[in-house]
Amino acid sequence: LSFASHPENAVSISRSLKLVIICAPILMLVVGSFLIKAKTDISSPILAGLSGIGFGAVSVIGRVMSYPHPLWNLVANPLAWALVVYSSIALFFFTAALQRTLASNVNAIMVAAETFVPLLVGILLLGDTARNGLWELVVVGCLLVIVGCSYIAKNDSLAH
């Protein structure tokens, strides 16, 4: 994926997309809180996925947020606060998932979600493109992430 990527400029986003980015942690907290209490077999992978989505959202916010001068004016930017909330939620759900299953399983799922969410948001909503039209590398990279993470999770589950 890194071979097909290239730097992109910060983009302006619609007010509605900004509102979705700012409010999505509420839904994540509701789902994650339910899963933490449920303690089912499926709760750990979903918590790991939510963790990855949170970390991925941090990178999306970094892509769309403008940095004011002087920098302390960030305090007034709702996206800056959303960045703090997403990273806190991601760390919390990552920790909760680690308490339920193997670290390699949690990391595999988290990395996959952390990779795909910003990739999809960038392509579908922010107009990101592959460097020199190398879309084949994007597809191959995505497949390698899926296969690699699935392999890690499957083999660790079998080993224990």
Question: Could you characterize the architecture of this molecule?
Answer:
The chain contains 5 helices and no strands. The chain is an all-alpha fold. It has helices spanning 15-38, 43-64, 78-98, 103-125, 135-159. The longest helix is centred in the C-terminal third of the chain and has 25 residues, at 135-159. The two termini are 31 Å apart.
Helix content: over 70%
Total number of beta strands: 0
Backbone CA Rg: 17 Å
Shape: flat
What is the end-to-end distance? 31 Å
Helix run count: 5
Query: What class, by secondary structure content?
Result: mainly alpha
Q: Segments where pLDDT lies below 50 for 5+ residues? A: none
Strand content: under 5%
**Major sheet details:** none
Mean pLDDT: 86
Topology as H/E string?
HHHHH
Compose a concise summary of this entry.
The chain has helices at 15-38, 43-64, 78-98, 103-125, 135-159.
Topology:
Layout: H1 15-38, H2 43-64, H3 78-98, H4 103-125, H5 135-159
Helix pairs in contact: 1-2, 1-3, 2-3, 2-4, 4-5
Please tag this protein with its features.
single chain; 160 residues; mainly alpha
